[in-house]
Amino acid sequence: MNSQSYQYTIFIGLADRETGVQKYSIEKYLSVLKNVCSNYQVAFSFHSINGGYFHKDGRYIEENTLSLMMVDVQENTVLEIAKDLCAFFNQESVMITSSPTKILFVNEHLHDTSKTTVKTDKYQSSEKEKTHKKFTD
Question: Which residue of 89, 97, 109, 123 has the fewest CB atoms within a 10 Å radius of its CB?
Fold first, then answer.
């Protein structure tokens, strides 16, 4: 039986929920985000993007947004991280998306001219290792 890996993305707006203004620099928000992920011992990637949001009272705001991507993390941990970031960034809400994903790690080094190894993630029913000969001049 195959276990499925999921990619989760949390979208966190940076405009304060009460004032509609971003209070701090993106770098300061990133520092908090990185600290939260470190405390939960979660590997992550992020993007700084722009987005629009309709508040419950009907106000529309365009704001800087951080998207935090995580793979191979328990859903309850993702929810706890989302709650922390929502509170720390004083947001009305944050959005979480999830999608099934396949993870491949490619390990290649310039000094190794004989082969390339590709391993599928640890959740595949049978772990496969493929070795490919590199092109040589």
Answer: 109
